[in-house]
Amino acid sequence: MKPSIAIIFCFLVLGVDSQRWFQFMKEAGQGTRDMWRAYSDMREANWKDSDKYFHARGNYDAAQRGPGGAWAAKVISDAREDIQRFTGHGAEDSRADQFANEWGRSGKDPNHFRPAGLPSKY
DSSP string covering the chain, please? Predict the structure, then answer.
């Protein structure tokens, strides 16, 4: 299925009305960028025990964009965890990641997962 058809199908399934369609798309794009920024920062920081913080932060930032951002964060987070499970990575770690994802998407402070000493840049 082509990506454009998949996106339109998702909007129909989600029931997004035509007036909010463009706003939803904008929020989803911004949320995707927020998730990518959190992932890039995690890779750059390369800080021990910071994984959950960056999961929560990316989801939090994306969800703050609105329903489109929250939707993008959920889709990206779920896809990432599904891939990890499929490739045989730890189920326990995946559950912990999903807990951090949901924490951030629900609007709770991602700093709850912030490891000691992580530079303030992040």
Answer: --HHHHHHHHHHHHT--HHHHHHHHHHHHHHHHHHHHHHHHHHHH--TT-HHHHHHHHHHHHHTT-HHHHHHHHHHHHHHHHHHHHTT--HHHHHHHHHHHHHHHTT--GGGGPPTT--TT-
Which has the closest alpha carbon to 107: 68, 61, 43? 61
Q: Is residue 10 part of a domain?
A: no
- Identify whether 119 is part of a domain: no
81 inside domain: yes
Range of the domain at 33: 25-113
Is it the case that residue 9 has pLDDT exceeding 70? no
- The enclosing domain of 71 has a CATH number of 1.10.132.110
Residue 108 predicted with pLDDT over 90: yes
Which of 106, 24, 104 has its CA nearest to residue 65? Answer: 24
* pTM beyond 0.85, yes or no: no
In the chain, the number of structural domains is: 1
